[in-house]
Amino acid sequence: MVLNPSGVSGGDNVVFSPAPMDKSARIYIAGHRGLVGSALWRALRKQGFTNLVGATSSELDLRDRQGVLRFFKQTEPEYVILAAAKVGGILANSTYPADFLTDNLQIQLNVMDAALATGISRLLFLGSSCIYPKYAPQPIKEDSLLTGHLESTNDAYAIAKIAGIMQVQAVRRQYGLPWISAMPTNLYGPNDNFSRTTSHVLPAMIRRYEEAFRAGENSVTNWGTGTPRREFLHVDDMADACIHLLENYDGPDQVNVGTGTDVTIKEVASLVASAVGYEGTVHWDHTKPDGTPQKLLDVSKLTESGWTPKISLEQGLVQTVQWFRDNVHDSRT
Ligand SMILES: NC(=O)C1=CN([C@@H]2O[C@H](COP(=O)(O)OP(=O)(O)OC[C@H]3O[C@@H](n4cnc5c(N)ncnc54)[C@H](OP(=O)(O)O)[C@@H]3O)[C@@H](O)[C@H]2O)C=CC1
Ligand SMILES: C[C@H]1O[C@H](OP(=O)(O)OP(=O)(O)OC[C@H]2O[C@@H](n3cnc4c(=O)[nH]c(N)nc43)[C@H](O)[C@@H]2O)[C@@H](O)[C@@H](O)C1=O
């Protein structure tokens, strides 16, 4: 069953017919080297797509409005997946809120305005689960958006993402283009950011436990109290969900993408220890922020369309630890 069988969405006169994307279609993946962008590139290549377009941030800074418009005119993509953003974990977000707000607003405005100016009919914007209120009823439904105060550690980033959702909805209403938005839960996997300070919890713990294991140390210290709950989706499942949405979904509302289950940070720390083989003691630094107590997404809208994740957290962690061992050698950052 497609999410929008009528082909016409409520509230806007968009017409979309669910169909597989043509394997020769030009698909621009903004942020193609990142955690999500590289997973999309792998997945689309594996499915036989031959006309993928990407540009690194040094080749094209998406904050450069004229440069972005020139790029769109030169490359003429048929699909755009906006997976480029300034992204970071709880400490980075709470330390640099102005950067997270302005960079992401600029990237979103420039990419979506250039897509509109060059008539891109299909665009997928990636937001984040942090757009929902700190104390939204759990699991969080899409219509919880804007019903309460945001979590302070990432409210600037969340506002930028909410603006992105609004820009997609406004283009649909004013121009009738079938642009869509997806809201991923916490993601992890190959090509993640493993920085000690700016990373999310899973890559941070993988690095911390692996370095302790290699050094024969028997003590690690994690952030916060370990009591918050988080939902973790492997990035290859995320890429698969993006392709599913592009070929099946049309509607003004953002679609939650997740597993529908969550664990405490203490539980995930134990899973990381098992995946690494670390058997030492674990300490918790309560001076670091916990962030929102829980942000489990209600993914019924996505599962009812026939999509479910395939990679369990246990399997995904073992695979990501192995990827880290094979690929991350510079541990000074
Ligand atoms: N990781 C997560 O847990 C979650 C991520 N998301 C969202 O998913 C999307 C992808 O995130 P993720 O893959 O984790 O992020 P990454 O940090 O792994 O990748 C971000 C990408 O954006 C590019 N980028 C950043 N700034 C600029 C710029 N100024 N100009 C051009 N390119 C830029 C980077 O390019 P380069 O590598 O060339 O520098 C990089 O490839 C984002 O929208 C994020 O908000 C949502 C929920 C959870
Ligand atoms: C995807 C989502 O990601 C961010 O929200 P977050 O989920 O709170 O981010 P996080 O993964 O950094 O932390 C999750 C939990 O884990 C605990 N924690 C323990 N030890 C470490 C640790 O070593 N590093 C980090 N980062 N967290 C740790 C940490 O204290 C917190 O309780 C948003 O900023 C925003 O980017 C967003 O949308």
From TrEMBL:
Pathway: Nucleotide-sugar biosynthesis; GDP-L-fucose biosynthesis via de novo pathway; GDP-L-fucose from GDP-alpha-D-mannose: step 2/2. Its EC number is 1.1.1.271. InterPro entries: Epimerase_deHydtase, GDP_fucose/colitose_synth, NAD(P)-bd_dom_sf. Substrate binds at R208, W223, R230, D290. One of its GO terms (molecular function) is GDP-L-fucose synthase activity. SUPFAM superfamilies: NAD(P)-binding Rossmann-fold domains (SSF51735). The record marks S128, C130 as: Important for catalytic activity. NADP(+) binds at residues 31-37, 126-129, 161, 184-187, 200. It catalyses: GDP-beta-L-fucose + NADP(+) = GDP-4-dehydro-alpha-D-rhamnose + NADPH + H(+). Transmembrane segments: none annotated. The active site is at Y157 (proton donor/acceptor). CDD domains: GDP_FS_SDR_e (cd05239). Catalyzes the two-step NADP-dependent conversion of GDP-4-dehydro-6-deoxy-D-mannose to GDP-fucose, involving an epimerase and a reductase reaction. Belongs to the NAD(P)-dependent epimerase/dehydratase family. Fucose synthase subfamily. This is GDP-L-fucose synthase. It comes from Pseudarthrobacter enclensis. The lineage of its organism: Bacteria, Bacillati, Actinomycetota, Actinomycetes, Micrococcales.
